[in-house]
């Protein structure tokens, strides 16, 4: 089955000028009402046509008994209706000239033979009318730049960001969306929930994100791609310009079987998938946390020039555990050069041996925490084979320093070496107070060593295509 | 070097009747003042004798120029003084009849030959006078039941709990302590910071915790034990009664080298250590997060009877990813019995196939989220080979249900099967509002699948000694 997707084919799913919504109630509060309320909360400026058998008014809008009765163009229909009514709804949309539909109901190819048959039926109608289907089993899209959101779950308004996510789950249009809104990061451009991927899939989403000017970083959660070779080719092309973090669910046979029940996905052997990922510059994630850690770092920092990491820590355990974790992640921990050591010497007692990772306690006694971080990080950043900096602290009154000033100065003076901050232990509210201002100036903050090291790994992997380009004249020639 | 530690030898470090503190200021605010302020904040009821060259008054207490001038018994001295003044301070304490000292300064065996020599010097004096040394490079102890805390870092008051931690880091008496205080869990009984372990080490701490009635669960962070065989033997004995989670820093060669600089520890080959852990029922942690996840679950739940895990999730991705993660953790995901399926049947549409992990969306449409969780979890709990339950949700208004009631009822009706709750995505403040009441009734809550699965693994491993005991008459005989 060949699909030819024009560059902006998904545009109506993210930037519709007008939408109709099936499944809202006039008296109660159904999921269709949630969809409309999300659009209103996000400040959607297009036209909204609720569908309701009785017509009349719904949430302040004129309601139509059928899409056929709407006498204006409808870019996108959102079907928040029971499974068995979807096939006739798709036909009706086809007759009404609507060419894009989000199908929210589940119970299709994720649910046995009857469901699979219904999904085929929908797809047949869609092909006949030239309709693109998102789902079934999708909660739709978010577009912060277009002030649009269709989720079935109540969202908080997100600030505009540069990360776009395509996922075979609605979680990024549910609790995680609310988390991102509250924490401000990762900053989101677009989210698309792919559901069963009867029609629109990761490849379509990737191609759309490729040409979307507000998407700089891409996150994918997939339970198995249908055309692996095509996916890898597209991902390879895109990852040269936009870093791509991919979480694959269904790695185990139990997970794969569960994926079949969730979205009807055939996961395929994990080895083949992860092997293929390694060949291209895709950044593999093993958990939702890793996916989020990665896209946050990539959205705030430039890709790293290499894989050398310098760690400056207020706690010795932070040094030991980060060395373990960096080693396990395959990153490098360069030894300090004489020049670097000389720069640090003046604030460390003579008996104290500095290495990488560096415990700064002795320097803290001499010059204070802020000064110790400043001098160590400056010295580390000036060493050529250190490409990424990790600063580790814990939040107690005694560890307070002007982090925004100290880290901010380093960030400005050394723009091509990402700085990652890590907090080992804090009261939650103090953590957010500390981390938010830093993230606003482009320093990602993590509450674990694993988070910081995964961030470093992501930034290092994201730098691969740049390094390849720099190092290979042949590659440049091909591009020219 | 043989050490014979009497059962309650560490008692003065946790429950001193009187303490003297060296290193507090009368006019300014030094770390010695922090130590005294922590004691006061915790409600310490014993006597406090600050030391100060000028005598007079300090923070409302009479200050003494020297410990020799205190004419009352002093159970514990806390030395918050520069490295080079420690040896003479230890001698002075010896002459004054003080037999227990916390040495806070670093720069000893963690810091080259001169430091190592100083440490030997201290140790020699200590042996001469029969003094026990905690440190050097220690921030001291916490004892919530005894209302005592010596940390150099400002602590928040902790409620009384049942977990005790021995660590070669002060982090659990710094930011993590404040985190535990804010989140209420894991509930802490005692913490001891071991530092360089010149004298008191993990084995001493373990023996003390073994006989401490308020310690039910033990967490260890070590950068390498000096007498591995002794440690394993003691750990083996204790882990039969009190679950023991161990995080070993310095697993990699870079980490081991960093550990030597942090606490002067020789890590030893990781394979030998982790191999030995497997033989006894120690629960290995690979990160601070795993250590915290584990001790929280163990402090709230009974050990599990086996390794069968049932997962009930509001999100399909939660099913897929938990199946992957459980498989990778070596836990079992039992298939559902016909009896279990029959119990679930009545709230699931006929076309919907239920398996383990179970996605409850279809049942939610029929009976509401609370009812779906209730029926699924009840049915799963009644299946014999399911030993642990994991419930997964996301926090949006549409996913709200009476979690405390539904989960609480299950917990009461099925006390030998731990229930673990997991939230995939939430606004942080909503997460704490949701999780705290559940943890108060003994249901540990995690914000990641990795956290929940590690908790399940910990509970399953903690059940091993019980199962062995049940299954092996020989073992029982030996004990009798």
Structural summary, described in words:
Two copies of one chain form a homodimer. With 480 residues, chain A is of the alpha/beta class. Chain A has three domains: 124 residues, Rossmann fold, CATH 3.40.50; 160 residues, Succinyl-CoA synthetase domains (Rossmann fold), CATH 3.40.50.261; 158 residues, Succinyl-CoA synthetase domains (Rossmann fold, 3-Layer(aba) Sandwich), CATH 3.40.50. Helices cover 42% and strands 16% of the residues of chain A. A seven-stranded mixed beta sheet of chain A has the order 9-8-11-10-12-13-14, sandwiched between helices. The first copy, chain A, has a five-stranded parallel beta sheet with strand order 2-1-5-6-7, with helices on both faces. In chain A, strands 16-15-17-18-19 form a five-stranded parallel beta sheet, sandwiched between helices. The radius of gyration of chain A is 25 Å and the shape is elongated. The N terminus and C terminus of chain A are likely disordered. Chains A and B meet through helix 4, helix 5, helix 8, helix 11 and helix 16 of A and helix 4, helix 5, helix 8, helix 11 and helix 16 of B.
Quick structural summary:
With 480 residues, the first copy, chain A, is α/β, with parallel strands linked by helices. Chain A is 42% helix and 16% strand. Chain A folds into three domains: 11-134, Rossmann fold, CATH 3.40.50; 141-300, Rossmann fold (3-Layer(aba) Sandwich), CATH 3.40.50; 309-466, Rossmann fold (3-Layer(aba) Sandwich), CATH 3.40.50.261.
